[in-house]
């Protein structure tokens, strides 16, 4: 089930930031977008790359990203069935942001060691 979005954003200064963050606010969404940057990836490969994400959580995050138009899902009719996920054109516009988050995380890994 896709989670409901805010029906309206408070258009005070910063509402564009709120709108953008609301699209990638799940724990795994940025990770999924990062792993899709090099091309289509199948579900189980995404799950392997993402580490500790559960199948249910990954499914929910993928559904939300697809509903928001950031990724596309392609179903191949074959035996066994195959599904691939890829960035949509709009999702591709987030890559500079995802790369900036990765660079910031790499530079500040010491913050995570304290946890």
UniProtKB/TrEMBL annotation:
<feature type="domain" description="HTH hxlR-type">
    <location>
        <begin position="15"/>
        <end position="113"/>
    </location>
</feature>
<dbReference type="InterPro" id="IPR011991">
    <property type="entry name" value="ArsR-like_HTH"/>
</dbReference>
<keyword id="KW-0238">DNA-binding</keyword>
<dbReference type="Pfam" id="PF01638">
    <property type="entry name" value="HxlR"/>
</dbReference>
<dbReference type="InterPro" id="IPR036388">
    <property type="entry name" value="WH-like_DNA-bd_sf"/>
</dbReference>
<keyword id="KW-0805">Transcription regulation</keyword>
<keyword id="KW-0804">Transcription</keyword>
<dbReference type="InterPro" id="IPR002577">
    <property type="entry name" value="HTH_HxlR"/>
</dbReference>
<dbReference type="InterPro" id="IPR036390">
    <property type="entry name" value="WH_DNA-bd_sf"/>
</dbReference>
<protein>
    <submittedName>
        <fullName>Winged helix-turn-helix transcriptional regulator</fullName>
    </submittedName>
</protein>
């Amino acid at each position: 089930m896709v989670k409901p979005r805010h029906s309206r954003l408070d258009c005070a200064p910063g509402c564009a930031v709120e709108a953008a963050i609301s699209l990638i606010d799940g724990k795994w969404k940025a990770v999924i977008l990062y792993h899709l940057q090099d091309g289509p990836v199948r579900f189980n490969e995404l799950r392997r790359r993402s580490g500790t994400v559960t199948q249910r959580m990954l499914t929910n995050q993928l559904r939300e990203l697809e509903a928001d138009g950031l990724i596309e899902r392609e179903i191949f009719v074959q035996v066994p069935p195959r599904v691939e996920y890829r960035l949509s054109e709009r999702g591709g516009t987030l890559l500079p942001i995802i790369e900036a988050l990765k660079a910031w995380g790499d530079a500040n890994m010491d913050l995570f060691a304290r946890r």
